[in-house]
User: Fold these one by one.
Assistant:
Number 1:
Amino acid sequence: MHSQLYFIVAIFSMASVTFIIRFMPTFLPKKLLNSPLLLAVNKALPLAVMILLILTSLAWLDNNQQFNPSKLLIAQILALIFVLISYHMFRQLFVSMIVGIVCINLFLKILT
């Protein structure tokens, strides 16, 4: 019962923080929202979040929790390079996603 209460409190606390953050622009004055610091954070945050998502999804560790540049990591990095190149060339997110999926599978097949 204790773990269920923990999960319920965790879910409600995350929901309340999300609710407060999403509705904060409604309550804050426009002068504060147009501050240079907040505009710079707003501009840089999506890129930072994407970089963090990419770095945490890479397979840095092997099964023994030690750094080992495995075939999966090499395939992921190569596929990521191809995704960046395709997005730079075509500026189409959907095409880059397809290129990434094809490349990761192709590189895994080549490397194994």
Number 2:
Amino acid sequence: MPLVAHRPLAALDRLRAEGQEILDVERAHRQDIRELHIGLLNIMPDGALKATERQFLRLIGNSNRIAQFYVHIFTVPGVPRSADIQAYIDAHYENFDDLAAEGLDAIIFTGTNPVHADLAQEDYWPHVQRVFDWADKNVTSVLCSCLASHLALRHFYGIPRLRRANKLFGVYSHRVLDRSHPMLTNINTRFDMPHSRWNDVGAESFTACGLPVLVAGEESGVAMASSPDGFRQIYFQGHPEYDHNSLLKEYRRDLQQYREGNSGRAPYLPEHYFTPAGIRLANAYLASGAPISDFPEAALLEEVDVTWRDTAKALFANWLGLVYQLTHQDRRLQFMDGIDPADPLGRLRR
């Protein structure tokens, strides 16, 4: 079933304008349908905050028809904010303490742009630790996106992330390594996912801590892994939620920062993202020396091949379906109390 607009949010209005079904609270209450309450911890920087809301709301709303989805968006202190964005957060976001008191079924945890090599030095570190610790005891599953995965791995297992020589930036092919995992039911054995990161946690670090690697790529490394129980925490090092223009906008931003002297090296074009015609267009623009105001964003957007969206929908559908089963079909007690801590998803595997 669709998303429920239980709070005013521009992102929901935009999704409604795109044709996605959004229920008002009164209509939702008239339907005898199960509810799922999903937390969205959004610590993305100001420029990506609202886009990230839309991306995850769109995936939740499009991915499953099993329940009415109440998405509770919140953040934590310690992330630098402009006055305008802080006012927006104050008006539209919920309070974590209130959500903890009322309860959530699952949480999606986004990342941000870190300042320090050691994540434990970030101003938001103690606040995200508090959310992780609460969620570990009180929700069915936490799905971590990119930096959020590194935060979780640092907090729970002490795993440091390692700086790459070059930014991993583009859309990469991956192979499913555990076809029996319910998160990967009806997923192609090979699929694409966007990545955008300077740092990495390698497969050996996951396996050394007993964390199953579920999906990996030759160029990108680990794309998806889980906590030892298989589901309480899901780690993505990539961005299945990205819009078709996300990498393009990021490239333009990085190019502008380089030209303004705020970055020491020119950014690479995102790999495996543009058509051959798009690569020629981008290179012609760069060779021309034209100002950033002439960046051919609209033309380049026509030369983007979207090869990850269907898989992203299927992954989120599977995740939400498992949250639903473990929460509403008498499986939560089994899962949370650890009747079979080695394999809480065993009865759900194919």
